[in-house]
């Protein structure tokens, strides 16, 4: 009988929790995976966190405040905005293209191709009905790189495998802004960096080799000032070509380069996101300088520029969104309204019941002394992963024990 009573109490308690109202009390921030800025002044900024489901957030005041518009079932790998209509947004999630025509409030879903994972997305600057997506598909034996093209605003897609190499992937895509019949893709094939070029709108492709293996090609940029200049951001640096991708030189050794974007009114100024910093080039990719002052978290997966203000840059990390108003030299946190952090551990100090310690995954340990109303970010902890437990010494409450790993 005693077991039944306990079981009923647990069920009753669970029911209460199920219907309780929950309010997020922070800390603000969370891992940002991708984003896009419109051509408006001030620009409309859309971002998506690396969570499933993934809320789509919007800012109309250069990142000072953020509002959740809608939620997608998983996080997008890439987002683009129609250059002619900032209410039209596209997002890529695996084999699906999502399209919003009302500024991210609601979305229509279109299947590109099943058993395919698309990682990148670009829109034709001269004809916004044309989009390209780069990814890879499972053919029953191997992953092979592929490129998808839509000519009717993301509703229907044609997919072309752009290499026969086994265990190969596309991670980046770019359209030549001057000659839009030329499309570039970047990725990884046969254990080396892979770069592909099409001169017939993606129908056929040719692979070109880098002289140095910089591994995965995550980002691409084609200069509108001289469209023979192509940059490829990769795991181990930035490669530069001055002949439309035929030959290459390595211009940077900064790592990852997940995102590469230019200043619209000054396209010789280019930014990339490195592991814990943002890198800037003022000479179309010849030389690079790294800046990290004020950036928290790691993995700068998203870099965005302000089309109306050349000095303003945005970046997204595992700690949230950051903004620079001095060309990327110094950064400040802009997470007001971003409440998407993963909190795997919450620990209440036994001797101080209003004091909480939490693990903010891929970010830091935070402390609150007022039941979570305000939070203090604690100094970095040496380690290689997230915490799975925080506990207090029963004899000396000033001693805190942390357990790292999966537990």
TrEMBL record:
Cross-referenced InterPro entries? Sialidase_sf, WD40/YVTN_repeat-like_dom_sf, Xyloglucanase_GH74
Q: Which residues cross the membrane?
A: none
**What is any one GO biological process for this UniProt entry?**
xyloglucan metabolic process
Name the PANTHER family on file: EXO-ALPHA-SIALIDASE, XYLOGLUCANASE (EUROFUNG)
Name the record gives this protein: Sortilin N-terminal domain-containing protein
Q: What species is this protein from?
A: candidate division WOR-3 bacterium
């Amino acid at each position: 009988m005693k077991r039944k009573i306990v079981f009923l109490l647990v069920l009753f308690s669970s029911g209460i929790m199920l219907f309780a109202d929950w309010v997020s009390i922070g800390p603000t921030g969370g891992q940002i995976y991708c984003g896009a800025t419109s051509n408006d002044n001030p620009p409309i900024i859309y971002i998506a966190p690396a969570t499933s489901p993934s809320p789509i957030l919007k800012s109309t005041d250069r990142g000072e405040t953020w509002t959740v518009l809608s939620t997608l079932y998983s996080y997008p790998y890439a987002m683009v905005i129609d250059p002619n209509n900032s209410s039209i947004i596209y997002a890529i999630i695996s084999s699906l293209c999502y399209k919003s025509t009302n500024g991210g409030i609601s979305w229509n879903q279109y299947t590109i191709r099943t058993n395919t994972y698309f990682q990148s997305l670009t829109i034709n600057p001269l004809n916004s009905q044309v989009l390209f997506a780069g990814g890879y598909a499972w053919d029953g034996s191997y992953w092979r790189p592929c490129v998808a093209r839509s000519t009717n605003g993301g509703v229907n897609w044609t997919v072309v495998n752009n290499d026969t190499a086994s265990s190969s992937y596309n991670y980046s895509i770019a359209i030549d802004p001057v000659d839009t019949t030329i499309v570039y893709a970047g990725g990884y094939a046969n254990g080396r960096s892979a770069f592909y070029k099409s001169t017939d709108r993606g129908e056929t492709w040719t692979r070109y080799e880098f002289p140095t293996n910089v591994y995965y090609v995550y980002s691409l940029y084609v200069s509108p000032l001289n469209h023979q200049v192509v940059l490829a951001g990769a795991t181990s640096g930035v490669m530069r070509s001055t002949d439309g991708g035929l030959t290459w030189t390595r211009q940077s050794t900064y790592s990852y380069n997940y995102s590469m974007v230019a200043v619209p009114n000054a396209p010789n100024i280019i930014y990339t996101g490195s592991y814990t910093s943002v890198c800037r080039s003022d000479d179309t990719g010849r030389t690079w300088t790294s800046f990290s002052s004020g950036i928290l978290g790691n993995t700068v997966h998203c870099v965005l520029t302000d089309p109306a203000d050349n000095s303003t840059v945005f970046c997204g990390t595992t700690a949230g969104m950051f903004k620079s108003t001095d060309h990327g030299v110094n950064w400040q946190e802009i997470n007001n309204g971003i409440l998407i952090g993963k909190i795997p551990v919450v620990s209440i100090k036994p001797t101080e019941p209003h004091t909480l310690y939490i693990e903010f995954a891929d970010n830091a340990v935070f402390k609150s002394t007022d039941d979570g109303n305000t939070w203090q970010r604690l100094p970095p902890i040496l380690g290689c992963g997230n915490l799975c437990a925080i506990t207090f010494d029963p004899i000396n409450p000033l001693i805190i024990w942390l357990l790292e790993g999966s537990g």
